[in-house]
Structure formats: C-alpha cells, structure tokens
Write a structure and sequence with these properties.
single chain
C-alpha cells in the first residue's frame, strides 16, 4: 500500500515522490519495480508528461550554470591577457626611453672619435647611456670601441645591448 502512495506521488510529478522512491530499501525497490507492469499505460504516460517540464527546467538550469562558469573562466583569461599586454607596453616604453637617451648628435660625436678615446669616455658615462650610444653607432664602429674597453665594461654593455635589442619582452 505504501508503494501505491509513492507511485501516485511520482505520477503526479512531485519531486518528493522521487525522493521517497530513492529512499526505499532494496527489497522494497524490487516490489516497486514490479508495480509498473501492473500500472496502466495511461498512468505511465501521465507520469512522463508531468516530469518532462521539471526535467527540462533542470537541464536548462544546469546549462546556465555551466555557461556562467565558462564565462567567468574566459573573463579571468581576458584579465590575465590584459595584464600581460600592459606589462609588454611598459617594457616597450622603457625600451623606447632607453633608445631615446642617445640623441643623434651625441652618437655622431662618438662616431667621429678615435675608438680608444671613445671607449675611455663611454666607460665614464652611465652604462645604459653608453649602451644606447653603442646601439645607434654602426656595428663596425661599435665593435672597435668595445674592443678598446676593459672586458668587464664591454661585457656589461653587451648584456644591456642584447637585452634591449630583443624583439620580445626579456622578462
């Protein structure tokens, strides 16, 4: 008799009835499984019709939650990309400021100097300015000047030039 009440609740589309069926003991569940054979087809049809809207609503709800989750993941990725873009723009600005330090007038002065004198003078200026000047000189002239410098200064300037000459972010 308890099974008939449970099945009627299910047939009426009540989720409480669904919960009751799931809580039935295994031996009772077998009896409930046998009951639909005795149940008229009309009652089974009503059951399916009654739960169709609830099932569709639940499916739409699950899809909406999944879409919301995916949207938040996409928003996080966009924020990360925007952060990288800002970082790259900052690096590019630093590089442009670095290259702007060596004005063309100064570069032409060092280009016309003797290599040993230019090397001696460049050793006295800040390393980033010296590297910017060397980058704007013709490679052959810059090489001769670097050759005249002591090895530690030449290596430091070469490191600065190499990191500034890279087309992508050195970090």
């Amino acid at each position: 008799m308890g099974h008939k009440i449970t099945l009627r609740r299910i047939a009426a589309g009540s989720f409480a009835g669904l919960i009751l069926v799931s809580q039935v003991a295994p031996t009772q569940a077998l009896a409930a499984d046998e009951a639909p054979a005795d149940m008229p087809a009309d009652e089974v049809q009503r059951f399916c019709t009654n739960i169709a809207d609830a099932a569709r609503d639940r499916r739409y709800s699950l899809q909406a939650m999944e879409l919301t989750k995916l949207k938040s993941e996409v928003d996080e990725r966009i924020a990360a990309l925007e952060g990288k873009r800002a970082e790259y723009e900052e690096w590019l600005e630093r590089r442009n400021v670095f290259l702007a330090k060596a004005e063309d007038g100064i570069v032409s002065i060092y280009a016309s100097m003797r290599p040993d004198a230019a090397a001696e003078r460049l050793a006295e200026v800040p390393a980033d300015l010296a590297a910017a000047i060397l980058m704007k000189l013709e490679p052959r002239t810059a090489g001769v000047i670097l050759n005249e410098m002591n090895s530690k200064s030449a290596a430091a300037l070469t490191n600065i030039i190499a990191s500034a000459a890279r087309p992508e972010d050195p970090s």
